[in-house]
């Protein structure tokens, strides 16, 4: 998850790069993370229902 503050929206935004289009927001950091956890579940269920592949988690990213 990538979490950042959006001045435009006045909210925390959470993006899930492994799941295209999967993102959520919230007034607090905790609310944004809780919201995206629901959206991740819905994203996966929808992909499975439509017969689309669900990417495997990439795990921890390595930084140089």
Describe the structure in brief:
The protein is of the alpha+beta class. Helix content is 33%, strand content 22%.
Topology:
Layout: E1 2-6, E2 11-15, E3 23-26, H1 29-49
Antiparallel strand pairs: 1-2, 2-3
What distance lies between the first and last C-alpha atoms, to the nearest angstrom? 19 Å
Q: What structural category characterises the helix and strand content?
A: alpha+beta
Strand order across the largest sheet: 1-2-3
Proportion of beta-strand residues: 15-25%
Helix content: 25-40%
Radius of gyration: 13 Å
Spell out the helices and strands N to C.
EEEH
Give the averaged pLDDT, no decimals: 92
**Count of DSSP strands:** 3
Count up the helices.
1
Q: Low-confidence stretches at least 5 residues in length (pLDDT < 50)? A: none
Shape: elongated
Largest pleated sheet: 3 strands, antiparallel
Keywords:
64 residues; alpha+beta; 3-stranded antiparallel β-sheet; 33% helix
Describe the model.
The chain is of the alpha+beta class. The protein has a domain at 1-27. The protein is built from one helix and three strands; from the N terminus they run βββα. The chain has one helix at residues 29-49; strands at residues 2-6, 11-15, 23-26. It has a three-stranded antiparallel beta sheet, with helices on one face. The longest helix is centred in the middle third of the chain and has 21 residues, at 29-49. The relative contact order is 0.17.
């Amino acid at each position: 998850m990538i979490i950042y503050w959006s001045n435009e929206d006045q909210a925390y935004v959470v993006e899930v790069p492994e799941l295209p289009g999967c993102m959520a927001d919230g007034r607090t950091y905790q609310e944004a993370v809780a919201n995206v956890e629901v959206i991740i579940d819905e994203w996966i269920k929808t992909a499975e229902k439509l017969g689309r592949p669900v990417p495997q988690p990439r795990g921890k990213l390595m930084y140089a």
